[in-house]
Amino acid sequence: MDFGLSDDQMMLRDMLQRFLKDRYSHEARRAVLTSGQAYDTAVFAGLAELGILGAVFAPEQGGYGGTGTDLMVVFEELGRAGVIEPVLGSAVLAGGLLAALDAEGQSDVIQQVIAGETILALAHAEPQSRYDLNHVTTRASTSDGAIVLNGTKAHVLGGAQAGMLLVSAREEGDPADKHGVSLFLIPSTSVGVHCHGHVNVDGTSSARITLEAVTVDQSQRLGPPGKAYTALEAAHARATLALCAEALGAMETGKALTVEYLKERKQFGVPIGSFQALQHRLADMLIEIEQARSAVINLAGHLEADRLTRERHVSATKNLIGRVGALVAEECIQMHGGIGMTDEYAMSHHARRLVMVDHLFGDVDHHLDRFIAFSGVSETSRNSADAR
User: Fold this and answer.
1) Same domain, 370 and 236
2) What is the mean pLDDT of the chain?
3) What was the pLDDT predicted at 388?
4) Which of 71, 107, 248, 303, CA to CA, is 20 to 30 A from 212?
5) What is the pLDDT of residue 264?
6) Which pTM was predicted?
7) In total, how many domains does the chain have?
8) Phi, psi of 380 (to 5 degrees)
9) 105 falls in which pLDDT band (50, 70, 90)?
10) Are residues 150 and 59 in the same domain?
């Protein structure tokens, strides 16, 4: 298997690196957040103009990339720079899902997403659903030939800035059934849509969206009625890969900041990086980061595999990234000392993002259980192994 990047992917990576180096900094990000904005609209427009948003869509969807490796290349660089612009929520998660379900019928919306003209958000998670994609209590009932949506959606990425919403609702079945869930594309300004935005711990933007008797017609349903679960799972697999690659980029920056600090900070007249205890901790951290990189590459190569294989790799990678991310954040801050926790220093932002990454799309415990389930290991066998 060839783990190298193609010439086009290396050009994409280098172009994005140069753009972010010139246009993005920790100070600029802090200024945006201090001003109350969710993200820098000029930077987001620049990413779209460079074709970064198009790189996460397949050619038949209007983009020019869309492979697992393309996602990995783009999001590692976004994570390395600490970008808070809504690329993940709009282009990968919601945009990719819309393209997979109805690429031809919604081509205008997809092109607007690729051009950065429209923010698209997936309103799927609910207050009681935790990380279970099948747990949907929002109801889609039929009244006088129209469909009426009622329910509450939690932690909608970019929901407060979105012009269009992809809303999941149950047309039949019990709350935990995989069958019976449909997706509807609605304007965020629709009557009955109430949005309450909030800022996450890492500075990114999310929202709680309440749907009160929101009326939609049959044409706004994407795909066959009640058959959206498979597409939702596949879209979250792609988004999880992107998120893990972003975490890898954040780890690399944390490592670089820590190495630089260990060379500059002096104690007893010598750089503290010369202390063997710190060298050992840094070496252990570097090994864990390389293991995380291997896992991300592995997931990128299995994104188009059969469902069982794909989802097993999704959970294995997300579990590992969550554990390594926590280790890197803690070690980097501890080796920095107090300065590592200050808002003025970039390390604190990357540490907060790594914490947030673990809770997006399932934490380490959720994906450990999921990996065991996909691997066919019984709970009894697991308890027996733990006892030994």
Assistant:
1) yes
2) 92
3) 38
4) 107
5) 86
6) 0.93
7) 3
8) -60, -45
9) confident
10) no
Same-domain pairing of 220 and 267: no
Among 67, 94, 118, residue at a domain's last position? 118
**114 CB-near residues (< 8 Å, 6+ apart):** 48, 53, 54, 57, 62, 63, 91, 95
Rounded to whole angstroms, the Cα distance separating 200 from 209 reads 15
pLDDT band at 271 (very low <50, low <70, confident <90, very high): confident
Given 118, 136, 162, which residue is the final one in a domain? 118
pLDDT of residue 387: 43
Do residues 172 and 302 both lie within one domain? no
Partners of 210 in the beta sheet?
152, 194
95 lies in some domain: yes
pLDDT (tens digit per residue) in 130-162: 899 999 999 999 888 889 999 999 999 999 999
Residue 344 resides in a domain:
yes
| Parent domain of 128 | 121-226
Residues 256 and 377 both lie in one domain: yes
